Amino acid sequence: MALLLEGCDGAPVMWGKIGNLVIQRTKRGTMYIRKYVIPANPRTLAQQNNRMAFKAGIDRWRTHEKIFHKEYWDKIAKKQRFRDGYRAFLSSFMMIYQAKIAELSGESAALNWVTNPNNIIIYMASPSKVSLEKQNEEYIIRVMKRRNSAIFVSQMDKSIQYLRARGWVNQIRFGLLPYADRNSEWEFLRLGLIPEA
Asked: Where are the domains of the chain?
C-alpha cells in the first residue's frame, strides 16, 4: 500500500508499493519508481551459519548481557556512536564469532564459544570502522592546518567584509564562516555572495 502525504510545498509526496511497482525517495528527496523485485536468498551454508550465529547473539543479549552487562554496552555505544548497547554488543558478538571460526577451526566450535556465558565478550571494533575513524582524523588535521594558513584567513576576511557591506551578514553564528574556495567559487559568484575579481 502506498502512502500519500502533502509535501511542504503543497505537492503530493508518495512512497510505498503499488501493484508490482515501488515508489521510493533518495536522501535528497528525489522520488523514483522501480519494479518490485524479491531479493535473492541463496541459502548457502555460510549464510545459514551466519544467521544462526546472529540469532544466538540476540538470545545471549536477552538472557545474559542485558541483565548483567547492559551498562558496559551502553557506555561503549555512546563512545563508539552506536544507537544503543544492543547494537554495540551484536556488532562485537559477530566480529568475535568470525574470529573464533578461524581460531577454533569451525563454525560449531565458534558458536559454542560465543554462546557460552562464561566466556566474556568485550567490544571489538571492525577494521572498516577503525579505518574510517583514522581517515576522519587525518581529514580534520588537514582542514585545521588549512584554516590556520594566512591565505585562508585573508580570503575569509575579504568574504566577510563583502557580505557585511551588502548587509547579508551582521553576525557570525556557531563559528561557521562563509568562505569560497576554488571548487565552490563559481557558485558563490553566480549567487552574488562574493565580489568578482
From this structure: 2-35, 45-130, 149-191
